[in-house]
Amino acid sequence: xxxxxAARQGAAVVLLEKSTDIARKVxxxxxxxxxxxxxxxxxxxxxxxxxxxxxxxxxxxxxxxxGLRKFFETIGVATQALDGFRVFPVGxxxxxxxxxxxxxxxxxxxxxxxxxxxxxxxxxxxxIFGVSTANGEIHASRFVLAAGSKSYPALGGSxxxxxxxxxxxxxxxxxxxxxxxxICRESWVANCRADTIGKAEIRINLPEAKKxxxxxxxxxxxEGIRGPVVLDFAREITPLLEKYGEVPLLLNLTGGLNExxxxxxxxxxxxxxxxxxIVNTLGGLIPQPLAKEICRxxxxxxxxxxxxLEGSIREKLVKILVAxxxxxIGHGGFEQAMVTRGGVCLKEVDPHxxxxxxxxxxxxxxxxxxxxxxxxxxxxxWAFSSGYLAGISALK
Length: 396
Description:
Elements: H1 2-8, E1 14-17, H2 24-28, E2 37-38, H3 42-47, H4 57-62, H5 65-74, E3 79-80, E4 86-89, H6 94-107, E5 111-114, E6 118-124, E7 127-133, E8 136-139, E9 143-145, H7 160-167, E10 172-178, E11 182-184, E12 196-204, E13 213-220, E14 224-226, H8 228-244, E15 247-252, H9 259-272, H10 278-282, H11 288-298, H12 311-322, E16 324-331, E17 339-344, E18 362-364, H13 378-395
């Protein structure tokens, strides 16, 4: 986006790509469907990035989601938001996005050099004047560092961009894998893989993180948990996992019902089905495989009727439904992470131009900066918006 934007304004642009092909992560995004952006307004969009989100405002003002959709329309990619929120290319094929971008690079006369890995800045008393590659030196007056993050090394992710940023004098906020499945100590999760738990609530059971909680669809796996709510929350968990070695969670698997609401629902259910087992009674609230595991955790005989259970067991059942304990002990690392938490420190970059405050002629865009968002087109929108602003600013 930075290359196209600058070239459209008349700049002579060279794009260095260390892989043999460009936009490989675009092809993998959105499960191969390429969730380009979403329909949130800028204010709501920024809030989803947390405390660093306000840094994005100038870039979003330069190119918001509506502007991005219009851009893609001009290069032949129609978009749609069938659910009213997530925006995909019509046909839901990521290769239509990649092919259109490649065609626009050619049309804009951007010189694309694949197989060229930027290795080291060439710097003199006046600033950066070039970059060395295994294929030789390239000299220029402006440089945009859009090297992405460490996530998905199979698709080109690496720490190359961070290394170049440090060479230029910048500091890097600690890097953690984000947006990835999590591994649990508890083995019972493997028995609950068949069903998606809608509107599950997750909170971290640590004093320093008691305010952190999310809600969304959760999926149990052989080793732990995944699903949109887990992918979004992983960015909060991976730093704590590195610090403590394990992270205790409490899950509400009943769509956020409290203890009194659960008791009322159970009471209503057993009024209709007086002879059914407790596992079937709980099956009115949660999937039956999960109900069996909840009974086991509470020490309840799953074949017994609810009224046959001791009062203490019934109370334990209710409390576990509201706050099911789960212990995170690992994750798949940067190899499985879709994004990276951390990056080039924002205080060293001008948000209005994305120019380095430390090196004249250097600009940043995309995930290399200390910004990462949730699922739903947030990270791609930021990549395109920041690329657009960096391209315009570098030209000016």
